[in-house]
Amino acid sequence: MEEFLDKLPQMDLMRSEKMTLVQLIIPVESAHRSITYLGELGLLQFRDLNADKSPFQRTFANQVKRCGEMSRKLRFFKDQIDKAGLRCSPRLEIEPDIALGDLERQLADHEHEVLEMNSNSEKLRQTYNELLEFKIVLEKASGFLVSSNTHAIGEEIELHESTYSNNGFIETASLLEQEMNPGLSNQSGLRFISGIINKDKLLKFERMLFRATRGNMLFNQTTSDEEIMDPSTSEMVEKVVFVVFFSGEQARTKILKICEAFGANCYPVPEDTTKQRQLTREVLSRLSDLEATLDAGTRHRNNALNSVGYSLTNWITTVRREKAVYDTLNMLNFDVTKKCLVGEGWCPTFAKTQIHEVLQRATFDSSSQVGVIFHVMQAVESPPTYFRTNKLTNAFQEIIDAYGVARYQEANPAVYSVVTYPFLFAVMFGDWGHGLCLLLGALYLLARERKLSTQKLGSFMEMLFGGRYVILLMALFSIYCGLIYNEFFSVPFHIFGGSAYKCRDTTCSDAYTVGLIKYRDPYPFGVDPSWRGSRTELPYLNSLKMKMSILLGIAQMNLGLILSFFNARFFGSSLDIRYQFIPQMIFLNSLFGYLSLLIIIKWCTGSQADLYHVMIYMFLSPTEELGENELFWGQRPLQIVLLLLAFIAVPWMLFPKPFALRKIHMERFQGRTYGVLVSSEVDLDVEPDSARGGGHHEEEFNFSEIFVHQLIHSIEFVLGSVSNTASYLRLWALSLAHSELSTVFYEKVLLLAWGYENILIRLIGVAVFAFATAFILLMMETLSAFLHALRLHWVEFMGKFFNGDGYKFKPFSFALISDDDE
User: Fold this and answer.
1) Residue 624 domain-assigned?
2) 129 closest CA partner among 176, 86, 64
3) Is 116 helix (H, G, I), strand (E, B) or coil?
4) Overall average pLDDT of the 686-698 stretch
5) Listed residue (683, 713, 681, 658) closest to 575, CA to CA
6) Where in the cell is it found (predicted)?
7) 713 and 644 in a common domain
8) Beta bridge partners of 345
């Protein structure tokens, strides 16, 4: 047996890759290039030898800080390009490698240029908005002033026209800060202040003016025709032009303070219409000049951003790689001479030659006089777990890793989950019509695989795309199980020929199966379509699916126990084989394996035996005659033997192993043997670190702790055998629910609507049926079956052999750098 097992070919996915702990001694002058080449190879996981130091205490902290600053600048450029609405495609030609210092200077120059242009553009935009507000105030306030002239306001408003001279508006003081001096009316003594304010502040503003002047003011306002950008906040807001007439210097001071408090922008408007027209022309002229200047500035800024955008992708990649290199260098230690860096890491055993060649090439390319020393170390701690996967197996491996990463070189459930996972899903989802819909979705994802793999997808779409092969297999198995159930959107078809039964009399349509007579060979594949619509359809399908669920569950749990044997054999733990695997197999199969055998015999013989009665009285009255429930000769004594074996298996898995471990420990302690206690022999999950280590078990032996742990483990298995078997009945329950829902939607929605002659009712019925099928059966039921299949694998199957306390192999690789690593 041992020779046969040794001759079996090894599977890459069955056990994780063999890992080797290596040490690198790298000269300082070739350190950067060596780490860069290792990042391109991506097969070495470095250990952090400076874990006790903070990030700021490490050797290359300044370089990491510089890379972080450059990343900030690159994000700034990307934000600016996005805000400008530019689409900058990277250059197709390969750009030469650029030194980090040169790139840092380039980024600093570009940032300074863009910031300066942004500042100038902001000032110009603020001035432009002020002039725009001034123009609107001149247009709207003139009507109020014409009205006031009819009341004989005689004195003109004194204007500082020097502010609006042709020397250049940009160099003058801000219009918001200009001194307001409207002057006095010779006849009435009235003065006025004109300006513009946000519409949502108008009511409170008017009330405050009224209270501050005790009602001694006249407030006029009119809404602007369009939204205006506020010069202070650069936001588009609705504004209102106002003119406040008042009398007295004290009132003027109060009104100006209130305007400032409410953010109202005040502008001087002359009373004389001639001066108003002249000032309006000047404002319009300056607006035109500023608009041309802003357009020219925007074009210049876009050109500068375009020149940055062409190289932005390459720069981002370069900075990320450099930061990753220096982060890795910070995990290395200087030797005592400060001339070499010492690093340690894990690599797959098959990659040692590749790593050695890469280090030699780095030494040659850096013109170093001393080569990199590369040698293998003796490992004490547990190595990381690494599986080489492809596009199909990767999704299933991720499903397993979501529960727990496999312990180093223990049996990998993903190998079997590639088949069992989609199959158990299909048992619950089985309908070949719905399976075809899933298949179309999977084929769409596969057809666009190359395009979607290069795009940045949303979280939901990314999850679907990552599981495209899982969906494909689930769809194929659903079609297979749907053909077995003979259900196409709940409708049976005579795909494989006619039914094996025919009606015996006119009451056949409402009869039980005894009302049918068999006149040809059994239906060749799947459920006979004659069961559809009969009174015994539901009892028959329930019995079929329930028994099938038990058979599948017992088979998968036995597979889990067999894998526990291969784990124990691989790790050399004979105690686990003798005192764990064997009694567990005996207990499980003495009870539930026997039940599976009875189910198969009953199917093959067509017996009417009640299996509930057989299993219950196997415990209550094992010596009682079975009578009509006897399925084969010698069944009663066989049941007694199996019951005794099940009772013997419980103390067998409970007592011997703790005492055997105690004996081994005592012999070692008394010096009778000089062998060490290998961790695999005491792998009881009491100390996972020591159990994974593969080294010496140096912890103090605590017999009571080990015994209690074994007691818990034994009770868990005994009770779990019952509960796990019952848990597999979810295969029957969900399959029944899916079938019944599909039948309800077909009969009570589609057929009911199709019975009407009204075309509108038919269309509504088809729409409701399509909606219910898509969102309930194809989305909710798919998710439900997916999660239940997940539970069956994580708990019922993997719980029999899987430890899941390993850690993933995460090599230093440029290909694995993501946006979050900046």
Assistant:
1) yes
2) 176
3) helix
4) 41
5) 681
6) Membrane
7) yes
8) 22, 46
Q: Within a 10 A sphere around the Cβ of 569, how many other Cβ atoms?
A: 15
**Residue 520: which domain range?**
495-531
- Both 515 and 587 in one domain: the answer is no
Indicate which CATH number applies to the domain containing 184: 3.30.70.2750
pLDDT value for 91: 61
Best CA proximity match to 643, nearest among 614, 671, 673: 614
Q: Coil, strand or helix: which one is 483?
A: helix
Q: How far apart are CA 646 and CA 584, in angstroms?
A: 9
By residue count, the chain amounts to 822
CA dihedral (726, 729, 733, 736) in degrees, to 10, reads -150
**What does 662-675 look like in DSSP terms, one character per residue?**
HHHHHHHHTTS---
Average pLDDT for 451-466? 87
Backbone angles phi, psi at 516, to 5 degrees: -110, 150
* Beta strand 45-46 pairing with 340-348: antiparallel
Q: What is the pLDDT of residue 676?
A: 45
Tokens of 197: 């304010």
In the three-class reduction of DSSP (H, G, I as helix; E, B as strand; rest coil), residue 110 is classed as helix
Using CA atoms, how far apart are residues 533 and 503, in angstroms rounded to an integer? 14
Is there a domain that residue 45 lies in?
no
User: What would the pLDDT profile of 181-209 be if each residue is shown by its tens digit?
Assistant: 444 344 456 788 899 998 888 899 999 99
- Res. 23: pLDDT tops 90: yes
How many CB atoms within 10 Å of residue 549? Answer: 24
Query: Which residue type, as a one-letter code, is found at position 502?
Result: K
> Is 610 in the same domain as 501?
no
Residue keyed to tokens 């790593």: 355
How do residues 326-356 score in pLDDT, each as one tens digit?
999 999 998 777 789 999 999 999 999 999 9
Strand ranges across the sheet with 239-246: 218-223, 239-246, 191-198, 265-266
Same domain, yes or no: 542 and 502:
no
Res 492: pLDDT: 87
Q: Give CA–CA dist 694/740, Å, rounded.
A: 53
Query: Is the pLDDT score of 741 beyond 80?
Result: yes
Distances (CA, A) of 101 to 76, 97, 107, 319, 655: 19, 12, 10, 11, 69
Average pLDDT, the chain: 84
At residue 240, φ and ψ (nearest 5 deg) are -130, 130
Q: Are residues 580 and 685 in the same domain?
A: yes
Residue 175 clears pLDDT 50, i.e. is over it: no
Q: Please give the single-letter amino acid code of residue 657.
A: K
Segment 614-633, tens digit of pLDDT: 889 888 888 888 788 888 88
How far is Cα 363 from Cα 373, in angstroms, rounded to an integer?
11
- Please report whether residue 464 resides in a domain: no
My answer on whether 678 and 643 are in the same domain is yes
Contacts of 79 (CB under 8 A, 6+ apart): none
Cα–Cα–Cα angle for 98, 99, 105, rounded to 5 degrees: 95
Contacts of 467 (CB under 8 A, 6+ apart): 395
